[in-house]
UniProtKB/TrEMBL annotation:
It comes from Cellulomonas persica. The lineage of its organism: Bacteria, Bacillati, Actinomycetota, Actinomycetes, Micrococcales. It is found in: Cell membrane. The chain crosses the membrane at residues 20-43, 104-125, 146-164, 170-186, 193-215, 227-250, 288-307, 338-360, 412-433, 470-491, 498-519. Keywords: Cell membrane, Membrane, Transmembrane, Transmembrane helix. InterPro entries: C4_dicarb_anaerob_car-like, DASS-Related_Transporters. Pfam families: DcuC. This is Arginine:ornithine antiporter. It is a multi-pass membrane protein.
Length: 521
C-alpha cells in the first residue's frame, strides 16, 4: 500500500431545491399596496363637482394637480397601514390621516372586534365545552353534514341580501371549523361556506340598506323597484353557490387527499388538544358555557340588523355602512349596535364564561391576552386592505377611474349598457370594497346615462350591485375575504384555485340575465 492513499471525499447531502410558494396574505396585501401606489403615480388626479348629498355631478369631471408630490407620495405609502388602521377623513378635503378632525376611515373598529372575539373564543374553548358539543353533533349528523353546510350558507346569504351581513361572520369561524373537521371536511369547506354564503347574499342584495338602499337613494327610485329580478338572482346565485361548495365537500369527505388545503400543521407554540372520547357528556359548567355562547352570538346578530330599514323599505343617502346607521327611524326594539358595542359584548361574555367556569383571575387574563394575540395576523391583513383605499383616496385618483367608467358606458345599446355597467363596476369594487361608498360615487353618474340608453334606473342598480358583489367574492382588498381566510388558515392562492370556476359561472349567469332584462325592457 502506498503512503499516499487517496482519501474518499465525505458524502455531501444534495441541496434541496427551494420550491416557490405563494406568499402569505400579509405579503400579498403588501404587494397589492405597492402596486396600487405605483399605479396612482401614473393615473392623473381628477375631481367631480358634487351635489348637496356628496354625489358626483355627471359631466363635471376635470383633471387637477396631484395633491401629493415627491416625499409626500413616499410618506403616503409608508403610512398607509397606519391610516388603514385609524386614519380619520377630513370632512372638507376628504384627505385621510391620523391628525384630522372628521370621521373614522380606518378599520380600528373591525380590528378591535376580532381581537375581542379571539379573547372570547380562547376563554370559551378552554372549558372544552365546544369540543364536546361538536363531537356529539358530528356523531348525530354522521353523513348528513351537507345539510348543515346548506343551512348555514342559505342563512348567511339571506342575512347578506337583506342587511349586508359580512364582517360579522368572523365570529363563526372558531365555531364552524372544528365542527366541519369533525364531519370529515376540510378548512376550505368551512371558509367557503361562510365567505360564499354571506358574500353571495350581499352580491344579490334585495333590500340591503347599505348597498341597494344607498344606490336607490342616489338614483332617486324606491328600494322596492326591481326587487323581483333581484330576488330571482338571489335564488339562482345562492343555489349555485351551495351546490358548488357541497360538490367539493362531498369529494373531500369521500377522498381526503382531494383537499386543496390539505392538513394544517399546528404551530410550535400551540398545544393540540387531545381528542374527545366518544360518548363524552357535557358537564353542568360546559352546558352553561354553551348557553352563554349561543346567547352571545344570537344577540350579536339581532343587535346589528336594521329592522326598520328592511321592513320600512326606505332609501336614501343617509344610509351609512361605516357607522351602521340608516335613514329610517328605528323601531323601539332595535339596538343599533356596531363594532364598539360588539367588541364589549364579547369581552363581557369572555369574563362571564370565566366566572361561570370558576377560573382564577390570572387564568382569565392570560386566556384573554392569548386569544386577542391569535387575531393579530388577521388584524394586519384587514388594516393593509383598508390602506389600499386610503392611497386611492388621498391621491385623488378615484374620480379619474370613475370618469373612465362613465366614458366606457356612454352610447351603448340598452343590453350593451346594462352589461357594461356590470363589467366596469367589477374593477372599481377592487378599489372601493365598501358597497355604500361605491354606490355613492357610481350611481349619480350611471343612473342618468341609463335614461339615455333606455335602461331603467332599477336595472342599473341591479347591474351595478352584481358587478360590485362579484369582485368582493375574491378581492384581496375585501376584509371579509382576506380576514376570514387568515382566521381559517387557508391560503389566498388556495382559495383562488377553489373559487375561480364559481366566479366564471356567476359572471356568465349575471351578464346573461342582466342583458336579457335590459333588451326586453
Amino acid at each position: 500500500m502506498s503512503a499516499t492513499t487517496a482519501e474518499k471525499p465525505p458524502d455531501v447531502a444534495p441541496r434541496k431545491k427551494r420550491s416557490l410558494k405563494f406568499p402569505t396574505a400579509i405579503t400579498t396585501l403588501a404587494i397589492v399596496t405597492v402596486l396600487v401606489w405605483v399605479a396612482a403615480i401614473f393615473i392623473p388626479s381628477g375631481r367631480y363637482q358634487t351635489d348637496d348629498t356628496g354625489g358626483p355631478i355627471p359631466g363635471s369631471f376635470e383633471e387637477v394637480p396631484s395633491p401629493l408630490e415627491g416625499w409626500d407620495r413616499i410618506r403616503e405609502l409608508i403610512l398607509s397601514p397606519v391610516n388603514g388602521l385609524y386614519g380619520i377623513q377630513d370632512a372638507t378635503s376628504g384627505f385621510v390621516n391620523t391628525e384630522n378632525v372628521g370621521r373614522m376611515f380606518g378599520s380600528i373598529g373591525v380590528v378591535m372586534f376580532i381581537m375581542a372575539l379571539g379573547a372570547f373564543i380562547s376563554v370559551s374553548f378552554s372549558t372544552r365545552s365546544l369540543e364536546v358539543a361538536v363531537s356529539s353533533m358530528a356523531q348525530r349528523l354522521g353523513s348528513r353534514g351537507w345539510l348543515l353546510i346548506a343551512a348555514i350558507m342559505v342563512l348567511f346569504s339571506l342575512l347578506g341580501s337583506t342587511m349586508g351581513f359580512s364582517v360579522e361572520t368572523f365570529g363563526f369561524y372558531p365555531l364552524l371549523i372544528p365542527l366541519f373537521l369533525a364531519l370529515g371536511y376540510d378548512r376550505m369547506v368551512a371558509a367557503a361556506a361562510i365567505i360564499l354564503g354571506a358574500l353571495t347574499g350581499s352580491m344579490a342584495s334585495t333590500v340591503n340598506p347599505f348597498s341597494i338602499g344607498v344606490a336607490s337613494g342616489e338614483a332617486g327610485v324606491s328600494i322596492g323597484d326591481g326587487i323581483v329580478l333581484r330576488v330571482v338572482l338571489w335564488v339562482l346565485l345562492t343555489a349555485i353557490a351551495v351546490a358548488f361548495v357541497l360538490r367539493y365537500a362531498a369529494k373531500v369527505r369521500r377522498d381526503p387527499s382531494a383537499s386543496i388545503v390539505g392538513h394544517v400543521e399546528v404551530a410550535d407554540d400551540e398545544e393540540e388538544a387531545s381528542p374527545v372520547e366518544p360518548g363524552t357528556k357535557l358537564s353542568r359548567t360546559q352546558t352553561w358555557v354553551l348557553v352563554i355562547t349561543g346567547l352571545t352570538f344570537a344577540l350579536m346578530i339581532f343587535s346589528v340588523i336594521p329592522w326598520s330599514s328592511i321592513f320600512g323599505a326606505t332609501a336614501g343617502p343617509a344610509e351609512d355602512e361605516l357607522v351602521h346607521a340608516t335613514a329610517t327611524e328605528p323601531y323601539w326594539f332595535e339596538l343599533g349596535w356596531w363594532f364598539p358595542q360588539l367588541t364589549m359584548l364579547f369581552v363581557l361574555a369572555a369574563l362571564l364564561v370565566g366566572v361561570v367556569a370558576r377560573m382564577g383571575e390570572s387564568t382569565i387574563v392570560s386566556l384573554i391576552g392569548r386569544g386577542a394575540a391569535d387575531m393579530i395576523g388577521p388584524a394586519i391583513v384587514i388594516l393593509l386592505a383598508r390602506g389600499v383605499s386610503v392611497i386611492m383616496t388621498n391621491t385623488e385618483t378615484l374620480d379619474t377611474v370613475l370618469h373612465a367608467m362613465e366614458r366606457a358606458v356612454e352610447g351603448a345599446s340598452a343590453a350593451g349598457f346594462a352589461v357594461l355597467v356590470t363589467l366596469v363596476n367589477i374593477p372599481l369594487a377592487f378599489l372601493i370594497p365598501s358597497s355604500s361608498g361605491h354606490a355613492t360615487l357610481a350611481m349619480p353618474l350611471l343612473a342618468p346615462l341609463g335614461d339615455f340608453a333606455g335602461v331603467s334606473r332599477a336595472l342599473v342598480i341591479t347591474a351595478f350591485q352584481m358587478g360590485h358583489g362579484l369582485m368582493l367574492l375574491f378581492a384581496p382588498t375585501n376584509a371579509v375575504v382576506v380576514g376570514g381566510l387568515a382566521i381559517a388558515k387557508v391560503g389566498y392562492d388556495k382559495y383562488l384555485k377553489f373559487v375561480w370556476p364559481l366566479l366564471v359561472i356567476n359572471l356568465v349567469l349575471v351578464v346573461t340575465v342582466i342583458g336579457i332584462a335590459a333588451a326586453t325592457g
